[in-house]
Write a structure and sequence with these properties.
Layout: H1 2-17, H2 25-29, H3 32-37, H4 40-46, E1 58-63, H5 80-98, E2 102-105, H6 115-124, E3 129-136, E4 146-151, H7 158-168, H8 184-212, E5 218-226, E6 238-245, H9 249-256, H10 258-277
Parallel strand pairs: 1-2, 1-3, 3-6, 4-5
Antiparallel strand pairs: 4-6
The structure holds zinc ion (ZN).
The site of zinc ion has 7 residues, from strand 3.
């Protein structure tokens, strides 16, 4: 039956981007930036600084884990949730002080927060970019350095797949909720929005890795992709940074010290203000 085939197609489109809850459906039907993309003249006259005069680019910084979920724990007991919060705060302070970017935090204290709530906060803030900060552990203590993840349909390698499984365990997200199926046109708009969002995330990932290179230790093949639920907002470009490995003694020491954290925040602040102030996000 044809209607059945169409229904299946719609479901695949939706499943591709939407797995953080049916509540997102209404928000993604006509996302703001897709409407803007449809009117080239309006975009070109808006000029540098965004479509809305005077509105700075908004970065939502998400410190991974929190509360009852400590994330990775280093050999000396350093907890990922504490590292991510400290670096996220330092980064937000630097960006807000620069006056070029408005930076906000999904959580500013030690609390548990579901992944869907983190994405929701980014949407409420109308974030141009969602940046989730983590510092993972690896089975091999030698693994160290910085890497940046975009969303993958299926994780790019077993290492990335294992990482994604651990991160997504936080609140059990993963399956698409499709009880509200929108009309055909919504599926097409949705697909366009998702495509545009994923392209912007890939651009941001490349820019961040390029900016970090030579200034912080990089993991080999630092541009990675994995099926992280935090990256699944269909309308907000999202990347996840692993700023190091707490399972590596050198990274744990670096990320446990104020100096090491400040260095990460300084490098990222420079990279992100250039990125968000640039043409691509305006
Ligand atoms: Zn993590």
């Amino acid at each position: 039956m044809e209607w059945r085939a169409e229904g299946m197609k719609r479901r695949r489109l939706l499943a591709r981007g939407l797995s953080v809850g049916a509540g997102l459906t209404a928000a993604v039907l006509m996302p703001q930036r897709v409407r803007a993309a449809g009117s080239g003249a309006a975009k070109s006259t808006a000029g540098k600084g965004g479509g809305e005069r005077g509105r700075r680019p908004v970065l939502m910084i998400d410190p991974g884990h929190g509360g009852a979920d400590p994330g990775a724990i280093g050999p000396t007991g350093l907890q990922e949730k504490e590292v991510t919060l400290a670096v996220a705060r330092a980064l937000a302070n630097r960006l807000n002080a620069s006056g070029q970017v408005t930076a906000a935090l999904t959580r500013s204290d030690d609390r548990f927060m579901e992944l869907a709530e983190r994405v929701h906060r980014a949407r409420v803030a109308q974030a141009h970019l969602l940046l989730s900060i983590h510092a993972d552990s690896a089975p091999t203590p030698a693994a160290r350095g910085f890497s940046a993840y975009t969303l993958a349909e299926s994780a790019s390698d077993p290492f990335a797949a294992a990482l994604a499984r651990r991160e997504n365990l936080a609140d059990g997200l993963g399956g698409a909720r499709l009880e509200e199926t929108p009309p055909e046109v919504a599926a097409i708009l949705f697909d366009l929005a998702v495509h545009r969002t994923r392209s912007a995330a890939a651009y941001a990932q490349a820019a961040v890795v390029r900016g970090v290179d030579g200034r912080l230790p990089l993991l080999e093949r630092p541009k990675r992709s994995a099926n992280f639920a935090i990256l699944k907002a269909p309308d907000i470009p999202s990347i996840l940074l692993e700023i190091g490995f707490l399972s590596n003694a050198s990274d744990e020491r670096r990320l446990g010290e104020a100096e090491g954290r400040a260095q990460v925040a300084e490098v990222l602040a420079g990279v992100l203000s250039r990125l968000l102030d640039g043409e691509f996000f305006n």
